[in-house]
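Input.
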Amino acid sequence: MLIVGHHEVTTLLDGHEKEVLELVAEAYRLHDEGRTSLPHSVFLRFPGDDRNRVIGLPAFLGGDDAVAGMKWIASFPGNLARGAERASASIVLNSTDDGRPEAFMEASVISARRTGASAALAAGVLTEAAGGGAPEGMGLLGLGPINLEVLRFCAARLPSLREAVVYDLDPGRAEEFRVRAGAVAPGVEVSVAADVSRALGTHRLVSLATTAGTPHMDLSAFRADATVLHVSLRDLTAQAVLGAQNVVDDTDHVCRERTSLHLAEQESGGREFVGAEIGALLRGTSGFRREAGRRVVFSPFGLGVLDLALARWVRDRAAREGLGVRVEGFLPGPVAATV
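Output.
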């Protein structure tokens, strides 16, 4: 069993944004082609506790180097007040030959970076579909690790990006984000907005990555030509969703667990408001067209196949470079033959 810790995972991924973007894009394409297995995520909640949860994402990703496994990710928002990260995660990878576990790794960085890469891929394809040239700026609302990764990968996917206007309810958190952003997107000038409306309305590309549990926002503060990366899934009201063009990662997955799209489905009685899935967009098979003067919202539920794509890459690089810890005797030995 190969065990890869947080520092080693981070070291292996740092500076490889282009590779991560392609890994995520290929996972989306394979999913759209039907070459994945993706059961619904399992949500573990605790009696009397409506904030904390642990989510299990089992998945199989096909292709030339198939991989199976599961991400187990906890979200405890109260950790932030204690100076700890909200999310913690691990991934186990299983052999597709005999099912035995092959690798175990810390996965908070994998989870955050596949999320950022997913949003950046959508930003690229959807702003290109809108015309008007590549975006030179973006707004970000909610300034935790996820939007930091969204900024990192948007800067890699959109070389035109030169400015980011950011906002958080906590001014100290916003200033800390501005400083950290200089390391992950050195070519982007980051300014902290005095109010939320400036972060939402200045640029035509906006990312929402808050910890909101219930919808609280319509789209009136956004530009009419906005591309909204609705990464947090629960910021927008059902009416806002129904009034926009909508792109998702997987319609069946995202219309559950009381996401904004789940509420929109309940209100409208169907899923016709979903215009396309990103895998089809990346393959050029969706037929999706942006409508002038109408906002587009990308709502990714977060697919376990993306985590596996990055985890497989980390596993292989760690093995080549001699990183991680190899634990012998973790699994039972060969079973003696019986007559």
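Residues 132-299 form a domain with the Rossmann fold fold (CATH 3.40.50.720).
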